[in-house]
């Protein structure tokens, strides 16, 4: 067997990738300052490259700059970077001062989103704006490593990572990082593994290439529902596995990892650490996107954190996957109650009780929703000196 060493050609544009990371300036919008429809329109405009719409919306609601989509928690900059919308990326970074190091719900930055999708132009813009190429997400990957896992070698090199054996790191292989990784990516059998600094990568730039590459193909589950991170659409942190692993072995491995993450999530939830529980359930979902119970559990964890929009998104996903399972409707009712939509919450609980008439949790949730409605009616009366209009009260009941 002949061992070959692969030399990566980096675009000449990499010479401009001078990394001078800045601290994150990101913050969350004040609660209630952005309604769900407005937030969705803002994120959709970023995905579609519609700067005109974004400019007008930001003028009306400046806090949109910090808005994060449901589920994975991408900012508009994350989405624009993932989709390769270079004009939006530059507008956000250099005209309205978006945070180049903003973190989503899984610890990934816009640079992770750009790198894992092979978006060279976005990577170079982020470098100019002070993005941090050494930041690791919750999988333990830097942006360069995320790019390498998805076979974007040129982007990986620009980000300072030029290894062909992605699993070989200090601290163990990808599969040993707290249960967060799958099989190590095999990006070039027999090629030598090495890490280089960003400066060394830039000095090695020699071969011109198109700086914009097509976005990573992803399923609607990964992109359209805003539930799963673009930077790891396969869920296992890799795009290829050892040739010795057949499909059945891989599936068994992923199933085991999903169960382990779910158990950790259950333990965290039981201890009241809802944020940690949500992260563990997210990890489990990466390995098993077909299990409605995982979305139900993460919905409960999000509700515990007060992230009711994310909780509702997961509950709706659960109900869609398992329409004859009453607990999913309970999760939906809890999220709606948290959002102040008592009338809709009542409908959700009643739908669950139609399936499971003896469900104690559903009955308790229904009582809570009705109590929330009465409380809102009392506040209305106290504020305005009269009862809620009859039609509104009837609809709420």
From TrEMBL:
GO cellular component: cytoplasm
Gene3D superfamilies the record matches: Ankyrin repeat-containing domain (1.25.40.20), Tetratricopeptide repeat domain (1.25.40.10)
Low complexity bias spans: 184-218
Region (Disordered): 1-37, 127-151, 169-251
Compartments (UniProt record): Cytoplasm
Extent of Acidic residues compositional bias: 221-235
Positions of ANK repeats: 72-105, 106-138
UniProt xrefs under Pfam families: Ank_2, TPR_8
Entry keyword Repeat: yes
Organism: Micromonas pusilla (Picoplanktonic green alga)
Annotated keywords: ANK repeat, Cytoplasm, Repeat, TPR repeat
Name the UniProt record assigns to this protein: Uncharacterized protein
One Gene Ontology molecular-function label: Hsp90 protein binding
Gly residues bias spans: 172-183
SMART domains: ANK, TPR
């Amino acid at each position: 067997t002949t061992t070959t060493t692969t030399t990566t050609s980096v675009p000449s544009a990499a010479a401009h990738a001078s990394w001078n990371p800045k601290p994150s300036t990101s913050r969350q919008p004040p609660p209630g300052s952005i309604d769900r429809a407005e937030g969705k329109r803002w994120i959709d405009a970023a995905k579609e490259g519609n700067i005109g719409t974004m400019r007008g919306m930001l003028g009306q609601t400046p806090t949109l700059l910090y808005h994060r989509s449901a589920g994975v928690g991408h900012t508009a900059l994350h989405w624009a970077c993932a989709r390769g919308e270079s004009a939006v990326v530059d507008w956000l970074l250099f005209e309205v001062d978006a945070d180049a190091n903003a973190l989503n719900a899984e610890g990934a930055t816009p640079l992770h989103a750009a790198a894992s999708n092979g978006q060279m132009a976005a990577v170079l813009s982020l470098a100019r704006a002070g993005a941090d190429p050494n930041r690791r997400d919750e999988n333990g990957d830097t942006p360069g490593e995320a790019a390498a896992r998805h076979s974007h070698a040129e982007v990986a090199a620009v980000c300072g990572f030029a290894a062909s054996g992605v699993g070989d790191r200090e601290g163990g292989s990808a599969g040993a990082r707290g249960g967060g990784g799958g099989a190590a990516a095999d990006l070039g059998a027999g090629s030598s593994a090495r890490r280089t600094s960003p400066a060394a990568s830039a000095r090695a730039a020699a071969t011109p290439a198109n700086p914009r590459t097509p976005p990573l193909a992803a399923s609607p589950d990964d992109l359209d529902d805003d539930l799963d991170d673009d930077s790891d659409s396969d869920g296992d942190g890799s795009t290829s596995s050892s040739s010795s692993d057949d499909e059945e072995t891989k599936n068994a491995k992923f199933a085991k990892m999903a169960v382990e993450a779910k158990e950790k999530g259950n333990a965290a939830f039981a201890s009241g650490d809802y944020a940690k529980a949500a992260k563990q359930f997210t990890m489990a979902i990466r390995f098993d996107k077909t299990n409605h119970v995982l979305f139900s559990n993460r919905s409960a964890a999000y509700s515990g954190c007060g992230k009711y929009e994310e909780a509702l998104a997961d509950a709706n996903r659960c109900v869609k996957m398992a329409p004859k399972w009453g607990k999913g409707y309970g999760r939906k009712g809890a999220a709606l109650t948290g959002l102040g939509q008592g009338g809709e919450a009542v409908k959700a609980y009643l739908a669950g009780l139609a399936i499971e008439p003896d469900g104690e949790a559903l009955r308790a949730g229904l009582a809570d929703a009705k109590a929330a409605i009465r409380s809102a009616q009392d506040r209305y009366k106290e504020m305005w000196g009269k009862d809620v209009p009859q039609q509104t009260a009837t609809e709420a009941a």
